[in-house]
Amino acid sequence: MKTDQYSLLKEKLSSKAFSSIFVLVDDNTDKFCLDIFIKKTKIDEFNKITINSGEQNKNIDTCQIIWDKLNAFNADRKSLLINLGGGVLTDMGGFVASTYLRGITFINIPTTLLGMVDAAHGGKTGIDFKLLKNQIGLFSDPTEVILDSDYLSTLTKDEFLNGYAEVFKHSLLTNKKDLNFNSLIKLDFYKDVTFIIEKYSEIKKEIVELDKFESNQRKILNLGHTIGHAIESYSYISSSLNELKHGEAIIVGLITELYISHKLLGFPLKDLQNIKKTFSEYFDVISFSDKDIEQIHDLMIYDKKNEADKLNFVLLEEIGSPVIDQQITKELFIEAFKFYSKSL
Amino acid sequence: MKTDQYSLLKEKLSSKAFSSIFVLVDDNTDKFCLDIFIKKTKIDEFNKITINSGEQNKNIDTCQIIWDKLNAFNADRKSLLINLGGGVLTDMGGFVASTYLRGITFINIPTTLLGMVDAAHGGKTGIDFKLLKNQIGLFSDPTEVILDSDYLSTLTKDEFLNGYAEVFKHSLLTNKKDLNFNSLIKLDFYKDVTFIIEKYSEIKKEIVELDKFESNQRKILNLGHTIGHAIESYSYISSSLNELKHGEAIIVGLITELYISHKLLGFPLKDLQNIKKTFSEYFDVISFSDKDIEQIHDLMIYDKKNEADKLNFVLLEEIGSPVIDQQITKELFIEAFKFYSKSL
């Protein structure tokens, strides 16, 4: 990423390819990222739309606020929406752009590690609906995703690590020796971040290209997410659990689903323990009561990725060898949480 | 249409291709069309979702009601939504299906003439937003459109004629001698309706296939709609004008835009007068005050089809010869309304 990541955008801006430019920010990226964006793009005229940050605002009400602003500033079919923010903002901004006047052009500029390696790519746009994550949305590609690690300096350590859950996941899915889990953990997560963004976003893009609409291969990206998403949703409604970040929930999802992989597909115990140990160096262990685990199980049934009421899991035979459409029992689900909670 | 229009659907239903079936109806089609549908498809198990009829309910609130019902009945990615209704219902049902879990399969069964010859085809789905027609939506095709003129027997004469506005439009756009305006008006609109549905929906489909995303040729379908849509929207908010049906507004749009065509492109006066006379046999002339005309003009500026703040009209050089991207003056706009109001 030595070249100017903004060159294509700057070219379009100077050629007046768009009738008007809109930049979508949330209260955080407005404060911490917009100045960087303006300095780098040298953009001189745009309309700013500011929304509240956070998953709890990733809903149809916020979409209506954005559509309304686009109307108010006379956005038309040749307008451009630039989404400057994390995964919540790029998911929602992509949905709003793709449904405004049946679709206007949008560009994603992820400002979090999670966005850079995952959310901003692959064309999944959408919002939550009645506590169900990403229930409403569509497949629609940004014309460009600009990766600029300079935005990461605006993140807290927690927010930064939150993104590593998806990097870990990609490293567990890839069969490229120089990028798999065992290679990844030798890197310096802070110093090598530009390399990590570039390489691990490529893994996602390669998988998505094989299967844009998630009929088959793309499902492997759900590793850790069948349980992880349910944990995340549950943490928003439960009084016994603090709200979890996406990455924190996915880390639990990965450990439990790899335990299930070990039991059902013989995923090596040595790798499982090594992964659990590595994660524990970066993420606190979360306490789940028996009632929590029951309720997470029930919530999971509604997870959108499960077709025809069957819970389909992605499991691993070994690092780099995922297997899709696996079913598990409730007993094994509970057992996996016991494994997660047990100290090493 | 001698063959069983439902054969493909019946085949899919009996092969259990879908995990669950949803039928979207409004209060009218629930009462007048659902029994016909059940009798013809011999469907034995489905979930009914009922919404309120009318353009005023074509909004995000109604979408939320439908998404909620899909959730409540555990719809998943392999569910099917059958839209049984007029243009409002098929537009909105298509949008809801295309955004639920990033898109489930949907089939349109239009129950109005307008739906059969126009709205149910072409992949435009969407809803109104803050009084702006079809402001939110996307391009998404139904897997099938079932045309069955038996539903038309449930319509009042006014509702039936409402659909003829689009048939007239298609007859003005086509260069097929046996289908153009002069051929159409020789038919018996009631007796020949099966033939008319079949042929005039084909005209729409042929135009759409040339240009799915409306970058060019498809724009000709907007004939009569630049002014017509603005009149329709205005009739909803104005206290001086009764609410107009889509077809009634489009008839005014066609006459005014053909008058403009006559002035700017030499569209033959003889044809213009013949068209105006024919329309007057089926549709009452509507009174517009000077203030109405001013406000319709202002509202038109927001019409979604106008890019970069320019009002782009489709005009006709002659019947069957449309020209896109035409600009007009406000004076000519006002003059066109005077022509419309003047008795023959």
Can you walk through the features of this model?
2 copies of one chain form a homodimer. By secondary structure, chain A is an alpha/beta fold. The first copy, chain A, has 2 domains: 7-154, 3-Layer(aba) Sandwich (Rossmann fold), CATH 3.40.50.1970; 157-341, Dehydroquinate synthase-like - alpha domain (Dehydroquinate synthase-like, alpha domain, Up-down Bundle), CATH 1.20.1090. Helices cover 47% and strands 15% of the residues of chain A. Chain A contains 15 helices and 9 strands. The first copy, chain A, has helices at residues 7-14, 27-32, 34-41, 60-72, 87-99, 113-119, 157-162, 164-173, 181-184, 193-210, 225-237, 246-265, 269-282, 290-300, 330-341, and strands at residues 21-26, 47-51, 80-85, 105-110, 124-129, 132-139, 144-145, 313-318, 321-326. A 5-stranded parallel beta sheet of chain A has the order 2-1-3-4-7. In chain A, β3, α5 and β4 form a beta-alpha-beta unit. In chain A, α14 (290-300) crosses α15. The radius of gyration of chain A is 20 Å and the shape is globular. The model of chain A has no long low-confidence stretch (mean pLDDT 93). Chains A and B meet through α4, β5 and β6 of A and α4, β5 and β6 of B.
